[in-house]
Amino acid sequence: MSKSESRSFFGKIFRMRSEDREILKIVGLNKEQAGLARYFDFLVVAAAFLLFCGAFHLHVMLSAGDWDMFIDWKDRQYWPLIIPIDTIMFPAAVQAAFWYYFRLPIGATLCGVCLLTSVWIGTYSYWHLWTMFPIVLNVPSIIIAGCILLDVILLIFRRWIFVACIGAPLFALTFYPSNMAALTGYYVPVEHLGSMASMADVIGYTFPRSATPEYIRIIETGTLRTFEGTSVWVSGVFAAFVCIFLYMLWWQIGMAFSTVKTWSQSPKLKKYLGFKG
Predict the structure, then answer these.
(1) How far apart are CA 181 and CA 198, in angstroms?
(2) Which of 15, 160, 186, 190 gets the most CB atoms within 10 Å of its CB?
(3) Rounded Cα gap, residues 175 and 84, in angstroms
(4) Using CA atoms, how far apart are residues 69 and 84, in angstroms rounded to an integer?
């Protein structure tokens, strides 16, 4: 993009409409001040995006990091159970804040995009560049499909209780299918040293790591496999049930932080602190 094209592009973004000029007359801002205010808005949006990326990524790494770090650790019992339960918390709270302040059903999708962005940045920087693991060993999970469903349900019904009863179970149930498109190739059976293993296992054997979870060695013989020979959908249904109550809890947490009053706004609190009304 040339300099003239760049100016034309940004000129279209910051070009004022007639309604904008009327608003500027009312608030007493000139064109230069309005342009600076709009630049400041873009900076605030960028800072908020980075804040959401860091906070959500830190939350997932501290609470569910083991199940989402490596391709051969994504098992069929705990991975589709733990990740949806853990990752529905932030989207519910942020969705509540965006709905309360702006009436915008985009909070959950924003969290999904923030998490995927931060995980890919981290995967490429500290797993690939620092420890020299291949990218195929650290393919992250994707929750954007479930987040979109949460926002769509909120947009249609406009009540958080419907999102909790319909959207939260769909968030958990769509987690495993939405990730299979990216992960199916890693579960192709191959022969390795005279025994059968998956491609993900072979990659894991090639790049050994410390503290490999012990449950991975015994999970495929677990009792949940008695349900039609697989444990995926049993774990998914249980995760869907738990996500209903977690969504309710974290929606209320998001609303509590959105409606909190400072001491300058609460006469009762000002009285307790000794301030005059």
Answers:
(1) 16
(2) 160
(3) 7
(4) 15
Cβ burial, residue 79 (10 Å; 0-12/13-18/19+): buried
Q: Alpha-carbon distance 200 to 219, whole Å?
A: 15
- Residues 234/227, Cβ–Cβ less than 8 Å: yes
pTM for the structure as a whole: 0.80
118 Cβ contact partners less than 8 Å away, ≥ 6 residues apart: 53, 54, 56, 57
Q: What is the DSSP letter of 101?
A: H
The tens-digit pLDDT sequence of the chain (277 residues) is 555 555 555 555 556 677 767 776 776 667 777 778 778 888 999 999 999 999 999 999 888 877 788 888 887 788 899 999 999 999 999 999 999 999 999 999 999 999 999 999 988 998 889 888 888 888 888 999 999 999 999 999 999 999 999 999 999 999 999 998 888 888 888 888 888 888 888 888 888 877 665 555 555 554 544 444 567 888 899 999 999 999 999 999 999 988 866 655 567 666 666 655 5
The CA distance from 106 to 96, in Å, is 10
The total of other beta-carbon atoms located within 10 Å of residue 96's CB is 26
- Structure-token pair, residue 33: 């001040």
- Classified as helix, coil or strand, 195 is strand
Q: Which residues contact 53 (CB under 8 A, 6 or more apart)?
A: 114, 115, 117, 118
The CATH class of 63-272 is mainly alpha
